[in-house]
Amino acid sequence: MYLQTIERVYPSDFTLEELEDILDEKKFFRVNRQYIINSDYIKNIHTSPYYKVDLEFQPQEEISVSRDRVKDFKDWLVS
């Protein structure tokens, strides 16, 4: 497991589940089985048919929100 910031990547002994419990839920959201994202760095949100949502970040990276988390993600964005 690695934690990625704008400056660098850090190794971590935490699981994603542990990080979900530690991180501020107002700023961080688990979008799929591999990623927890920070809302401060979302550059664009692309929606497409079939409930697919892709997020574009700074620095340049694209991550998809899993279909089963799309509704929760949208609720989280507006809260």
Strand and helix map with partners:
Elements: E1 2-4, E2 9-11, H1 16-22, E3 28-30, E4 36-38, E5 42-48, E6 52-57, E7 61-65, H2 70-78
Antiparallel strand pairs: 1-2, 3-4, 5-6, 6-7
Textual characterization of the structure:
With 79 residues, the protein is an alpha+beta fold. It has one domain. It is built from two helices and seven strands. The protein has helices spanning 16-22, 70-78, and strands spanning 2-4, 9-11, 28-30, 36-38, 42-48, 52-57, 61-65. The strands form three sheets. A three-stranded antiparallel beta sheet has the order 5-6-7, with no helix packed on it. A two-stranded antiparallel sheet has the order 1-2. It is globular, with a radius of gyration of 12 Å. The protein starts with a strand and ends with a helix. InterPro entries: LytR-like (IPR046947), LytTR_DNA-bd_dom (IPR007492). GO terms for molecular function: DNA binding; phosphorelay response regulator activity. It holds the Pfam family LytTR.
